[in-house]
Amino acid sequence: MEMMQAGIICCHGKAVDDTRLVYFMVRKQTKDMKSKVQRLICLWLERIQRAEPGKHITFVLDVSKSSLANVDLGGIRFLLACFTTYFPDMLEKILILEMPWIMNTIWKVVKQWMTEEQRKRTLFCSFKDVKQYIDEENCLKYMGGKDDWEYTYPPLPG
Fold it and tell me: Where is the CRAL-TRIO domain (predicted)?
């Protein structure tokens, strides 16, 4: 439950191509959360697949305000494996938001793990450019959009 409350991964809104937006907030992750985050990834992808079978998603990897301490290479490899093995037709694109220059080396490693198709579907953008992929009404306020939604996870009753 603490992982759900942390809001590391959440689903909200749609991209301009009508795909569901799934956000991964890298800055909220620490390396000691590894196995829990992997289970959370599976939970969200499974939920989306069951709710909207056959639909694609836009996976927004928000690396703004994150540092190397927030990066889990094993988790990234796991995420890519999920899209390759367990949910092969689910991924429309990956938007990598506001990647700090310090993470360029990590990107060079990660892209070696990606399939050619995943590399083609990976786009880097700033908050300014993200509106090409998420219209202003669905773009979250902190990204410069009009949607003031903030993730909350209510505790279960009892």
Answer: 13-151
Nearest to 45 by CA among 11, 96, 8, 5: 11
Kindly report whether the global pTM for this prediction surpasses the value 0.90: yes
Strand ranges (E), 98-157: 122-125
Would you say the C-alpha torsion 10, 37, 96, 64 has a positive or negative sign?
positive
How many residues would you count in the chain?
A: 158
Domain ranges of the chain: 2-143
**Per-residue model confidence as pLDDT tens digits over 69-121:** 898 888 899 999 999 999 999 999 999 999 999 899 999 999 999 999 999 99
Alpha-carbon distances, residue 92 vs 18, 28, 137, 141 (angstroms): 10, 24, 20, 23
**Cα 121 to Cα 116: distance, rounded to the nearest angstrom:** 9
CATH class of 2-143: alpha beta
